[in-house]
Design goal:
It is a single chain. 61% of the residues lie in helices and 4% in strands. By secondary structure, the chain is mainly alpha-helical. It has three domains: 16-105, Fumarase/aspartase (N-terminal domain) (Fumarase C, Chain B, domain 1), CATH 1.10.275.10; 112-150 and 157-210 and 222-361, Fumarase C, Chain A, domain 2 (Up-down Bundle), CATH 1.20.200; 362-459, Ribonucleotide Reductase Protein R1, domain 1. Strand 1 (153-158) and strand 2 (161-167) form a beta hairpin. Helix 3 packs antiparallel against helix 4, helix 7 runs antiparallel to helix 10 and helix 7 (168-193) packs parallel to helix 19. Arginine binds next to helix 6.
Length: 460
């Protein structure tokens, strides 16, 4: 083992133990923050110069040094050191190495506590904007598929039993709506998150004549945080991000589950294209929907991170505690999982093969238009409860005969209710059933066409 001689500062008489260095270091994962860290430092230094806290020539040197470091990082030439604990100290040390004395002035009036909170906000803000763009892409793919399937009829299910016929587009549009709320959730928490912590310093603020509004504006924040202790301490913004991410993944997981089900030979409603499936090492006939299965599976880790973050925060006294360093790995993993999932999903949808004939055939099984018969009776003056009872008897007879209720002739139907006339057949067809649900939010072809039109305007 390498001999460890370095002390933290003159305050310490013993060097840090090697295992402790490894245990406390975050550089292995927080180096992801390097570019936003530099972005924040550049503006902080500029503010120090404007406020005459540092000299212009010192600011120029800092600017030059930080830009060089940025290039080194982008070119993957930067040497990260575990001895320097985290991304912030690594960059500061390198800055001093490059420009000397002026580099030592960068940390004036700030602390790593407000620095890291600022970095995380910028990083998560950028990720949020990217993710929102990706969700919209998925919505576009959804609308595209819906538009091609307005007249594709499928069984709408409740309790996984055939309930009523719906248009496949209507089913897809349900996901469009869920995704729309996901977009709102991300944009909503972004507003609360997008306030600048910098200036809080370690916890109490700083005695230098800083200008927080300048820094906030230049870094794209909507304002400054109003309490320095809150600014360095809370991670509620990450919890909100993770919560929004969990809900999004829950939606995607449900949809993935349906794709898995629909592509099974028992349903055969859709086929997922080969590029998103894998074979089996033993059963040559298999084509496994690995991608939707993993979307469903990875939802678990996103939920898990939410619980980790909630637990991370629950017992912490104000203000900053090192516990907070544990916020990063979960959040980075959530971002990676979301970004990958959202890259894959629209493509998978775009390449989905739909089998309308199979869908429609499934809708004809299971007495999907029984409610339409009941509604027909009600419109002719019978109470709904009574109609429900009449139709139940018709369905029972159809089950016994193993046929659909639309296959009964008028004389047979009249045995159950005299008011049934020959116009009933137009209600008992799948199309008739669908067309009659023409209010806002219903599955009628006309209603869906309008919804698609509105969704397209919204996405442009
Ligand atoms: N690496 C630390 C973190 O992620 C930075 C803040 C360190 N502050 C401190 N007082 N030790 O939270």
């Amino acid at each position: 083992m390498k001999k460890n001689t370095k002390k933290w500062s003159e305050r310490f008489s013993e060097p840090t133990k090697q295992i402790v260095k490894r245990y406390t270091a975050s550089v292995n994962f927080d180096s992801r923050l390097a570019l936003v860290d530099i972005e924040g430092s550049l503006v902080h230094a500029e503010m120090l110069k404007n406020q005459k806290i540092i000299l212009t020539k010192d600011f120029k040197a800092i600017q030059k040094g930080l830009n060089q470091i940025k290039k080194e990082i982008i070119a993957d030439r930067f040497k990260w050191s575990l001895d320097l604990e985290d991304v912030h100290l690594n960059i500061e040390k390198r800055l001093i190495e490059i420009i000397g004395e002026p580099g030592k002035k960068l940390h004036t009036g700030r602390s790593r506590n407000d620095q890291v909170s600022t970095d995380m906000r910028i990083y998560v803000r950028n990720a949020t904007d990217h993710i929102v763009g990706q969700i919209k892409n998925l919505q576009r793919a959804t609308i595209h598929l819906a538009e091609e399937n307005i007249y594709t009829i499928m069984p709408g299910l409740t309790h996984l039993q055939v309930a009523q016929p719906v248009s496949f587009a209507h089913h897809l549009l349900a996901y469009y709506e869920m995704l729309e709320r996901d977009v709102c959730r991300f944009n909503d928490f972004r507003m609360r998150m997008n306030l600048l912590p910098l200036g809080a310093a370690a916890l109490a603020g700083t005695s230098y004549p800083i200008n927080r509004n300048f820094v906030a504006k230049k870094l794209g924040f909507d304002g400054v945080m109003q309490n320095s202790m809150d600014a360095v301490s809370d991670r509620d913004f990450l919890i909100e991000f993770n919560a929004a991410a969990s809900i999004l993944m829950m939606h995607l997981s449900r949809w993935a589950e349906e794709l898995i089900m629909w592509s099974s030979p028992f349903f055969k409603f859709v086929e997922i294209s080969d590029g998103f499936c894998t074979g089996s090492s033993i059963m040559p006939q298999k084509k496994n929907p690995d991608v939707p299965e993993l979307i469903r599976g990875k939802t678990g880790r996103v939920y898990g991170h939410l619980m980790a973050l909630l637990t991370l925060m629950k017992g912490q006294p104000l203000a900053y505690n090192k516990d907070n360093q544990e916020d990063k790995e979960p959040i980075f993993d959530v971002i990676d999982t979301l970004e990958d999932t959202l890259e894959i999903f629209p493509e998978m949808i775009a390449e989905l093969k739909v089998f309308p004939v199979n869908m429609e055939a499934a809708a004809t099984k299971g007495y999907a238009t029984a409610t339409d018969l009941a509604d027909y009776l009600v419109k002719k003056g019978i109470s709904f409860r009574e109609a429900h009872g009449i139709v139940a008897k018709v369905v029972k007879a159809a089950v016994t005969k193993d046929c659909d209720i639309s296959e009964f002739d008028l004389i047979t139907l009249k045995k159950y209710s005299k008011i049934i006339e020959s116009d009933i057949y137009k209600y008992l067809t799948l199309e008739g059933s669908i067309k009659s649900r023409k209010h806002i939010g219903g599955t009628a072809f006309a209603a869906i066409t309008k919804t698609i039109h509105k969704a397209k305007l919204n996405l442009n």
